[in-house]
Amino acid sequence: MTTKLDSDAATPGQIVISVDAMGSDLGPAAVVAGLSESAVKNPEIGFLLHGDEAELGRLVGRSRPLAGRCRIVHAPRAVEMHEKPSHVLRHGQDTSMWSALESVRAGEATVAVSCGNTGALMALSMLRLRKLPGVNRPAIACLWPSRNPHGFNVMLDVGADVRADAEDLLQYALMGAAYARNGLDLSRPRVGLLNVGTEEHKGRAELRAAFELMGDAAGAGGFEFIGFVEGGDIPSARVDVVVTDGFTGNVALKTGEGTAALIRDFLREAFQNSPLSRIAALLALTSLRRLQKRIDPRRVNGGVFLGLNGTVVKSHGSADATGVSAAVKLAFRLAEAGFSERLAARLAGSSPPSAPAVPDGTGMPAAPGPDPTSSAPSTLGPVQSGGNA
Questions:
Q1: Could you tell me the CA-to-CA distances from 90 to 104, 110, 161 in Å, in that order?
Q2: Within-domain flag for 181
Q3: Would 371 be classed as within a structural domain?
Q4: In which order are the strands placed within the sheet that holds 224-229?
Q5: Rounded to two decimals, what is the model's pTM?
Q6: Which domain holds residue 177?
Q7: In 3D, which of 315, 344, 356, 351 has the Cα closest to residue 38?
Q8: Taking 80 as the threshold, does the pLDDT of residue 6 lie above it?
Q9: How far apart are CA 139 and CA 306, in angstroms?
Q10: Overall number of domains in the chain
Q11: What would the mean pLDDT of 93-120 be, rounded to a whole number?
Q12: Rounded to the nearest 5 degrees, what angle is found at the Cα of 348, between the Cα atoms of 347 and 349?
């Protein structure tokens, strides 16, 4: 795998983001356009672009904001959306996805971003970056627009693994709470467990077992466990972190995105129905734009893989330049805050999740020094409207 340098080295103090440039459904042009938007907004970002050297060279050459900000790492093949993760693990060494993760593993970049095949990305991330000690199943966490003052709730898992037992769900709660403390600046996040009802006797056996584990771990674990929550609570102000298995979380995520698109279409149809409705649309234009921005899934594009020795941000495969820029913004803020190191420190030396709580409150031995996921001010923040880094 050969490397073409657009600049001799990263600028001192620059945060380098490794990008799988070939994983998008819209092709590398959409990815490079998103990186250009990010580069305009933040001079502290440098990029490692992985993919076809000739094609990426042409695209980057036409982008003034990316001049001197990119290094292109040639990878002759892209992971296709239909490829099975097991096949990619055996035969994916020449792909842009593998190369992007390898740069994080080698310490050349701080965060990897990919729009590619989610299953393959998680499988390769676990192979190349490995799980943090004590983590059984990594999870994908997303930011969900909500009625909370900070504007977002954290939800996990939204697709890393379709199964999760009680101990896994407890670990998701600990990781999600750490993400909310750093990402939303919440000193004591409220954690809820997604179920078909709020009564304690409802749900599958593993949910009822997780209910008990989370209740026992909450006090010392630095979060408030509010019990079972329902689907309607996901965007509510009742909770900050919603915990579920990857099957349920992914269905909820796709349903929410589809509903947001349906609302936009209905509003457009309603305001084009008659001359009076068109006049009403003009009068309400500012409010309509604000609403569109709040429910636009591109503005909160990017799921974070939690529980790995390195940070990986998964962008939607169909993300356009705005969506890619939002994922890069999230990746940059995670790197800027040192979130991966903070989470690793929090989980270092962990005992099994089902073990009795110990003084630091995470089910793991207390580390010396200040708590790396305390409510101290952090530079990491949610992806707000605008989406550009």
A1: 20, 25, 20
A2: yes
A3: yes
A4: 3-5, 70-74, 45-51, 15-20, 111-114, 311-314, 303-306, 139-145, 152-156, 241-243, 190-194, 224-229
A5: 0.76
A6: 135-299+357-382
A7: 315
A8: no
A9: 5
A10: 1
A11: 94
A12: 115
Neighbouring residues of 352: CB distance < 8 A, sequence distance ≥ 6: 134, 167, 363
User: Measured between alpha carbons, how far is 35 from 321 in angstroms, rounded to an integer?
Assistant: 8
Q: Check if the beta carbon of residue 55 is closer than 8 Å to that of residue 342.
A: no
Amino acid at 124: L
pLDDT tens string 355-372: 333 333 333 333 333 333
Q: Is the dihedral of CA 389, 179, 319, 97 positive or negative?
A: positive
Q: How far is CA 325 from CA 114, 157, 388, in A?
A: 12, 23, 5
CA distance 145 to 299: 10
Q: DSSP H helical segments within the chain, as ranges?
A: 28-41, 53-61, 85-91, 96-105, 118-128, 166-183, 205-221, 246-271, 275-283, 285-295, 321-337, 339-347
* 81 vs 343 pLDDT, higher one: 81
Residue 198 lies in a domain: yes
